[in-house]
Amino acid sequence: MALSKVKACALAPLLLLAGCSAFFQFNLFKGLDKPPAPKASDYEGQGGLAKLANDLSSPAVVAQLKADPTTTQEIETYLATTYLSAPLTTPDQQQAAALYGDLNLKTTSGDQFVNNLVDIVMSGASGGKTIQQILQGIVPASVASDPTAFSNMVGGFLAAEAAYQLLGASVPPSPAGVNMGDVAQKAAVAWTMQLAVNAIIASGVPDTPTAEAQMYALLNNQPNSISGVIVPDPFSFPPAWLSNIFTAAGAKMPS
Asked: Looking at the structure, do residues 181 and 234 belong to the same domain, yes or no?
């Protein structure tokens, strides 16, 4: 009889938990729910930049922004019209420039491209390579299989590069709340993408959309006219803005 009581006592907590499973599921998994859909107004006014910085570190929020290009464009427009008028003389303007670059890269998979290419670029080994050598094996698979996504990624890099130019013209010192080491890596890759597009246009392709189409064709081994186009070394004659970003990051410019 005593043994039966012991068994009953041992089972009691399990039965209790089973009976309260809904309670525990609610509390344990509530934090895994999707965050509210972001709105452009979330990032306006006081505290808006800090919230955007925090949200861009959340894969769930970034995924929602990727799926909602209208809201993403509204946020970009707000940042550009409110903060990105040269010269960038305030910390908020400088942070907004960095966030504008981040927003463009993270919502177009450009950040994945940066992660794949950064070792090559930061080692100074990207100069003198053909565009095909730089692109193949580095472009994220989801982008490589979708010409629209690829075009959006290239456009994201070019938009980010323009913001990094503004930021680089205003530093050092490094603005508070901005990881300049991260910015330096992204700015270097964005500059490399700009050089690639410039090289394509200089080769005779008349405009940027056509350059993007040629790059996509090259990436997928389709007929193209730029198979031999070389990307100049991004660090042989670095622009002042990029040098300033590296200085603000306390990083040595690759050579």
From this structure: yes
Helices (H), 20-68: 21-29, 48-55, 59-66
3-state DSSP assignment of residue 67: coil
pLDDT digits (tens, 9 = 90+) for 158-173: 999 999 999 999 998 8
| Nearest one of 171, 139, 165, 164 to 152, comparing CA atoms | 139
Q: What is the pLDDT of residues 9-26, one digit of tens each?
A: 443 443 333 444 444 444
Task: Give the bridge partners for 132, in sequence order.
Answer: none
**Cα–Cα distance, 196 to 198 (Å, whole number):** 5
Measured between alpha carbons, how far is 9 from 188 in angstroms, rounded to an integer? 65
pTM of the predicted structure, to 2 decimals: 0.84
Alpha-carbon dihedral angle through residues 104, 152, 67, 74, given to the nearest 10 degrees: 50
Q: Do residues 111 and 193 touch, judged by C-beta distance below 8 A?
A: no
The DSSP-derived string for 151-214 is HHHHHHHHHHHHHHHHHHTT-SSPPTT--HHHHHHHHHHHHHHHHHHHHHHHTT--SHHHHHHH
Domain that holds residue 151: 71-249
Paired with 239 in beta bridges are none
Domain assignment present for residue 56? The answer is no
Reduced to 3 states (helix: H, G, I; strand: E, B; else coil), residue 130 is strand
